[in-house]
From TrEMBL:
NCBIfam families: TM0106 family RecB-like putative nuclease (TIGR03491), transpos_IS66 (NF033517). Residues 619-874 form the Transposase IS66 central domain. This is IS66 family transposase. The lineage of its organism: Bacteria, Pseudomonadati, Pseudomonadota, Alphaproteobacteria, Hyphomicrobiales. Residues 245-264 are annotated as: Disordered. It holds the Pfam family RNase_H_2. Residues 302-472 form the YprB ribonuclease H-like domain.
Length: 920
């Protein structure tokens, strides 16, 4: 069989990890080394040998067949398992020999099971795709496409059934992509990725990337970011470095509310700047954004932990610290999962013996190890306190480097920075991704050389971390041994055109002060213009407040002293008074209403404590406070505009701080109402969800919107993480309508994706790709189907019994799209999107009252964005308060109720009543 006319399982598996690797295997190029290939071959062979006797297919026990030679050997009935790694897909299957009879394997009684052996405890999607590839390849021989395949995986040789039809479309697309790459004159674009760490072609590909100065060398840059730079004509790191423009740093102001996770005030978010890293590489100098802050209060103890991610098992702990002027190194090895507790106890004992150990790690993996060990194995109270202390005082070197120190390296990885600082690993191909491969091989072979390799690699990481810590300490002290540049020296000073003038000469300062608007108007223009002189010549006195409308004298007096309970009290001061300014609503309008309270202060004859019956807590009545909230939330006025409005209409002096306090107190009062709104939404049968950015100091904050047809809730969150959905929508069993943001997929309920979003995206893709015929066909079919559905909705409403007639067409549309052979990127991306969400596009056809779009949530989002324009920059606390009050205002609007009247009423329950009137 011609190799160029076939695709082996090895090539298919390699393409899933890296198209370049698959291309190199296809053309037969040899890798510079065979270290990882040999390790993987040893691992696969040992694992298959360990479970060969345990395989049971049907009623018989048999070793899986090797697919090689099945084309030419007897095509007798096959009721066996076939190893997927030995299968080959033929683009043009060879014809049968003349007179050859049809194989019995094509009869329904024949059974063939594609089987895959994976030594890892967590099989991934690539394993399922490889099983499907084996099934497709075997169908060329047997004429039967297996319905299910099997993955045997992990230490315990567990089995996972793979439904072939779930992966047929993607497998076909991958095969087509491999063939397109093979037939193309140009090799696939070389892009370094995470698989490079365990690939024998890494030296070859990395060398080419370095020669090209390729952007994929910057491992922290995503594919989308690279594409964005490429669209601007930036293809090399050197070109990227020229685009760096120093920016004026934002004012760092901590949020007013403590972080839920750390209990500390979060500061401005630090981000990694790819342009600045490119500049550091181009100049081969360390670029520092401010002096790094690092100090050790105890004995720096460098901790490095190795584990098996697929089993959540830690097998190696390395410690390195200094004692009596000498370096001490300790390694703790576990042969199996039952030895994890032993190495943890030994490690804890060693840390306690140090006394004042301060953990120093490169990354957060080690502190997570300490937390998990504390949770996994019950400790004595003093040991638990000790672990908490070393976690609290630990130093994460990556956290001190990220966004602050830019070494001239392609990433912040320990290997790259350590080698820049002159440290070399004894294992040349050392990497965190390769260590589990060696450990799994050792478990199957018990090769002492592999064990020594891993222990040495672990201790090398500890030593390299010490080298990095020393460099950071020198940088924080301003040492000049490293070639460094302070990024602040690159910043261009802000050129002011108005405002404060920093004059070098006192004459300039005096001239500038004389040019201010207030100064010129009062000192210059007033001397030349009579009208201006009348307005600014003499400051106008503040207009006196109108007379008090009502006087109230409080004659009650305390019965006893609240401090000593004595009953002998005497009036100490009788002339106390307090004015409360409020608004009075009448049929004809609103007017100011001031009430003056007169009361006495009493003093205890025993303890001399002072007391009174009337305790004034505010100068502003409930109607005035409700009116201020109405101005802020309903009319979306800023604080300053709301204050001016109240002052000009009712002649009430309202300080800005008081307006803040009114909003905060009102939001706190209505928290039970807000919680009730959230409960009503979760208990309902339908939720529309969306999210938008907040305007919180420091950025990165969001407002989530949850609504149904009568209720709206706005929820502040520090991020766009899906954890908030797990907390808020826990127990929801209805239908969730949302856009295509992946976080919503984590909610365990029926879901309907917004078809308006999908239609807009398709329309945008058509504008950008007018010649993509596959895209046009998908768009046309989608338009025809949705137009018919919308016509039914307009006639009968959202009723399942009327919409059921479209289910067959909807299923046919999805199946047709999944079977298409899309070539262009736009059509292929849309095809994947539709296939991925096939169960969430037409859910509304099965339910009454479920819309096919998310316009309800978008309408609620627009209500917040309009308010956001008036808010300006706020704090997390302010956003929570705005979210509480806006939720109540929008819910009342959805139910046809008056927000101002509800605020005035003092009620906390909204209910489902109709619109409120002034008489209520």
């Amino acid at each position: 069989m011609d190799a160029n006319n076939s695709i082996t399982a090895a090539v298919f598996s390699a393409f899933l990890k890296c198209p370049t690797k698959a291309h190199l295997l296809t053309i037969g190029e040899l890798a510079p080394t065979t270290f990882f290939t040999d390790i993987e071959a040893r691992l696969s062979s040992r694992y298959k040998s360990a479970i060969r006797q345990e395989l049971c297919i049907g009623a018989e026990t048999a070793e899986p067949l090797d697919c090689k030679g099945l084309w030419n050997k007897g095509r007798e009935a096959i009721t066996r398992a076939v190893d997927c790694e030995t299968t080959t897909y033929h683009v043009a299957p060879p014809p049968r020999e003349p007179g050859e009879r049809q194989s019995q394997a094509t009869t329904p009684s024949a059974t063939i099971v594609p089987i895959l052996f994976s030594p890892w405890d967590k099989p991934g999607v690539s394993d399922s795709l490889l099983v499907c590839f084996g099934a497709v390849a075997l169908s060329q021989i047997t004429g039967i496409l297996a319905t299910t395949g099997t993955v045997i995986y992990g230490e315990e040789h567990r089995r996972k059934a793979v439904k072939i039809t779930d992966y047929t479309v993607r497998t076909g697309q991958t095969i087509d992509a491999i063939l397109a790459t093979r037939d193309s004159r140009e090799p696939p674009p070389l892009v370094l990725n995470s698989h490079c760490a365990v690939c024998d072609f890494q030296p070859r590909c990395r060398g080419i990337a370095i020669d090209r100065d390729d952007l994929s060398l910057l491992t922290g840059m995503t594919g989308k970011e690279r594409a964005k730079f490429n669209s601007k004509g930036i293809f090399s790191i050197k070109h990227l470095s020229y685009t760096y423009r120093p920016r004026r740093r934002k004012r760092e102001r901590p949020d007013t509310k403590s972080s839920k996770t750390t209990g500390k005030r979060p500061t401005l978010i630090v981000r990694n700047d790819h342009k600045l890293r490119a500049l550091a590489l181009n100049k081969n100098q360390v670029h520092v954004v401010g002096a790094p802050s690092i100090q050790f209060d105890g004995t720096p103890t460098f901790l490095d932990v190795e584990g098996m991610p697929d089993r959540d098992f830690y097998y190696l702990v390395g410690l390195r610290f200094e004692s009596d002027g000498a370096d001490v190194e300790r390694s703790f090895w576990a042969d199996g999962s039952d030895g994890e507790r032993t190495i943890w106890e030994n490690c804890l004992r060693e840390l306690k013996a140090i006394g004042d150990a301060q953990i120093v790690s490169y990354g957060a993996y080690e502190t997570r190890f300490l937390r998990r060990m504390k949770e996994r194995y019950v400790l004595a109270s003093e040991d638990a306190e000790f672990v908490d202390r070393i976690i609290g005082t630990s130093v994460n070197l990556v956290g001190r480097i990220f966004g602050r120190v830019y070494f001239p390296t392609f990433s912040n990885g320990l290997k790259e920075i350590g080698r820049y600082l002159g440290y070399e690993w004894t294992w040349p191909r050392a990497s965190g991704a390769a260590a589990p491969l060696l450990r799994r091989t050792w478990e199957l072979e018990a090769d002492d050389d592999l064990k020594r390799e891993l222990i040495g690699y672990n201790m090398d990481d500890c030593r390299a971390a010490g080298r990095v810590a020393d460099a950071l300490v020198r940088l924080s002290g301003g040492a000049a041994e490293l070639d460094t540049i302070d990024v602040r020296s690159l910043e261009v000073g802000f050129q002011r055109t108005f405002g404060k003038f920093d004059a070098l000469l006192p004459e300039f300062a005096k001239i500038n002060n004389a040019a201010y608007w207030d100064y010129q108007r009062s000192k210059v223009y007033a001397r030349t213009n009579k009208t201006i002189r009348r307005t600014v010549g003499k400051p106008s006195e503040r207009r006196k407040l109108a007379n008090v409308e009502k006087q109230v004298t409080i004659t009650d007096h305390p019965k006893s002293c609240p401090r000593c309970h004595a009953t002998r009290l005497w009036a100490y001061r009788r002339d106390n008074s307090h004015i409360v300014y409020d608004l009075k609503f009448t049929r004809r309008g609103i007017k100011r209403w001031a009430v003056q309270y007169h009361y006495s202060t009493y003093r205890c004859s025993e303890c001399r404590a002072e007391m009174t019956i009337y305790s004034p807590d505010t100068r502003y009545g409930p109607n005035l406070r409700a009116f201020v909230i109405y101005l802020l939330i309903e009319l979306r006025l800023s604080y300053q505009r709301a204050i001016e409005h109240v002052s000009s209409l009712f002649d009430v002096a309202l300080p800005t701080s008081t307006a803040y306090d009114i909003k905060s107190a009102t939001a706190k009062k209505y928290l039970p109402t807000y919680d009730g709104i959230l409960r009503q939404i979760v208990k309902g049968s339908l939720i529309h969800a969306d999210e938008t950015r907040g305007v919180v100091i420091g950025g990165g904050h969001y407002i989530w919107v949850f609504t149904n047809l009568t209720t709206v809730a706005y929820v502040y969150a520090e991020s766009r993480d899906s954890a908030i959905l797990d907390d808020l929508l826990k127990g929801f069993s209805g239908v969730l309508v949302s856009d295509f943001y992946a976080a919503y997929d984590s909610v365990a309920c029926a879901q309907q994706k917004c078809l308006i979003h999908l239609m807009r995206d398709i329309n945008e893709d058509l504008y950008k790709n007018p010649f993509d015929e596959n895209l046009k066909e998908i768009a046309r079919r989608f338009g025809v189907l949705l137009r018919e559905i919308v016509a039914t909705v307009d006639t009968y409403g959202l009723k399942a019994r009327n919409l059921a007639k479209h289910k067959k067409a909807a299923i046919g549309f999805v199946e047709h799209v999944g079977a298409m052979k899309c070539q262009a990127e736009a059509g292929l991306a849309l095809q994947r999107r539709i296939v991925k969400n096939r169960d969430k596009l037409f859910t509304f056809l099965d339910y009454d009252g479920v819309p096919w779009n998310n316009n309800n949530a978008e309408h609620a989002v627009r209500a917040f964005t309009r308010l956001r324009n008036a808010i300006g920059t706020s704090t997390p606390k302010g956003h929570r308060e705005y979210a509480t009050l806006l939720s109540i205002q929008q819910t009342l609007r959805y139910r046809g109720m008056n927000f101002l009247e509800f605020m005035r009423s003092g009620r906390l329950e909204i209910g489902d009543r109709g619109p409120m009137t002034n008489s209520q």
